[in-house]
C-alpha cells in the first residue's frame, strides 16, 4: 500500500495497519542486512541530514547505517562545533540544511515539540523524530514492537510490564501507544514519584513490581538516571534496585517464556541485574539489530512511498 504519512512525530497517529506495514517492511529490510553486500538503491539520490542536539550512540549510528544501506547520501550534523554553538537559531540552522537539498531531517533534541517546529518551518523536507525531550521516541517503540513480534509472532492478548522512570522516559510513552494498538495489555510500575498522571489514562499502574510482572510476556526495564535520586524522587539507588530492579526472583513471577527488554544503555545493578542482562531471556542485542531494519523500513516508506525497492 502507499504510505500516507508525511512526517514521523510519534506512533500515536498510526493505525494498527500502519504498524504492521512498518513491521512487514522491516522483515524485508532485515533480509537486505543478511546479504554479503548490505546495500540496495532504494534511496539513491536522496539526501538525509541527521541533526542531533543530544549525545547519542545507538540511535544515531542505527539511522546512519539504515540510510547508507538504502544508498542515501548522509549529512551528520551535531550542535557541538556548529553554528548553533555560536548562537544561530534552530530555524536558521534547519533552513540552511534544507537549502542544501536535503530530503529528510532526522532530529533529536531535549526540547519537546522540536519535530513539529521543524515541520512548520521547513518547506519540503520530511521530518523524523529521533527523540524529543521526555515525550516521544517513535523509532525506539517501533523497533521494540518489531523485536517482540519477531520473537513471539502474534502479540494480541499478551502482557507487557514497563518498569522504572516513566516520568522522564520518552520510550515508555511511545511503547505504551505502540503495544496497546496491537492488543497488548500494558502495565507500568515504579516509584509513584516517577509516574506522571497522564499515564493512568494510557495504562494500568501497579507499584508492586512482582504484581506488575505477574503473567507478563515482556518485562521492559527503563534506564534510571542517578540524578533522579539526587532530586529526591526516590530514596537511594540501592532501595530502587531492591524494590524495582529486574532480577531472576522478579522474573519468576512473569510467564514461563517471558523476555526482558531495555532501551540501553543499561545500568547494571540498578534497574537490571547483570545475570539477567547477560541471560538468554534478554533481547537487548535483538533490539539493536531490529533498530537498523526498522529505521530502513521507515526511511523507505517515508522517502520512497512504499514503492519498488
Automatic annotation (TrEMBL):
Q: Which residues are in coiled coils?
A: none
Q: Which family does it belong to?
A: Belongs to the aspartate/ornithine carbamoyltransferase superfamily. ATCase family.
Residue ranges of domain Aspartate/ornithine carbamoyltransferase carbamoyl-P binding in the record: 6-148
- Gene encoding the protein: pyrB
Give one GO term, molecular function aspect: aspartate carbamoyltransferase activity
Q: Which domain of life is it from?
A: Bacteria
Q: Which organism is it from?
A: Acetomicrobium mobile (strain ATCC BAA-54 / DSM 13181 / JCM 12221 / NGA) (Anaerobaculum mobile)
Record field: catalytic activity: carbamoyl phosphate + L-aspartate = N-carbamoyl-L-aspartate + phosphate + H(+)
Protein name, entry field: Aspartate carbamoyltransferase
Amino acid at each position: 500500500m502507499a504510505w500516507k504519512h508525511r512526517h514521523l512525530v510519534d506512533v500515536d497517529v498510526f493505525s494498527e495497519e500502519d504498524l504492521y506495514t512498518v513491521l512487514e517492511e522491516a522483515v524485508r529490510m532485515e533480509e537486505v542486512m543478511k546479504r554479503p553486500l548490505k546495500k540496495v538503491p532504494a534511496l539513491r539520490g536522496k539526501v538525509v541530514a541527521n541533526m542531533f542536539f543530544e549525545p547519542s550512540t545507538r540511535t544515531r549510528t542505527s539511522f546512519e547505517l539504515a540510510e547508507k544501506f538504502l544508498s542515501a547520501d548522509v549529512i551528520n550534523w551535531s550542535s557541538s562545533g556548529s553554528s548553533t554553538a555560536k548562537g544561530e537559531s534552530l530555524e536558521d540552522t534547519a533552513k540552511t540544511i534544507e537549502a542544501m537539498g536535503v530530503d529528510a531531517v532526522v532530529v533529536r533534541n531535549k526540547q519537546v515539540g522540536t519535530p513539529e517546529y521543524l515541520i512548520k518551518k521547513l518547506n519540503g523536507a520530511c521530518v523524523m523524530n529521533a527523540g524529543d525531550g521526555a515525550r516521544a521516541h517513535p523509532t525506539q517503540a517501533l523497533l521494540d514492537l518489531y523485536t517482540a513480534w519477531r520473537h513471539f509472532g502474534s502479540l494480541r492478548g499478551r502482557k507487557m510490564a514497563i518498569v522504572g522512570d516513566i516520568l522522564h522516559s520518552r520510550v515508555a510513552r511511545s511503547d505504551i501507544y505502540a503495544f496497546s494498538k496491537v492488543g497488548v495489555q500494558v502495565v507500568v510500575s515504579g516509584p509513584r514519584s516517577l509516574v506522571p498522571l497522564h499515564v493512568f489514562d494510557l495504562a494500568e499502574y501497579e507499584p508492586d513490581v512482582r504484581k506488575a510482572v505477574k503473567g507478563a510476556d515482556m518485562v521492559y526495564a527503563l534506564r534510571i538516571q542517578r540524578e533522579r535520586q539526587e532530586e529526591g524522587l526516590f530514596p537511594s539507588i540501592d532501595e530502587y534496585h531492591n524494590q524495582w530492579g529486574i532480577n531472576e526472583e522478579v522474573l519468576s513471577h512473569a510467564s514461563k517464556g517471558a523476555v526482558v527488554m531495555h532501551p540501553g544503555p543499561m545500568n547494571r545493578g540498578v534497574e537490571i541485574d547483570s545475570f539477567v542482562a547477560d541471560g538468554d531471556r534478554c533481547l537487548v542485542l535483538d533490539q539493536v539489530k531490529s533498530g537498523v531494519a526498522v529505521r530502513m523500513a521507515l526511511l523507505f516508506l517515508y522517502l520512497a512511498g512504499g514503492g519498488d525497492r
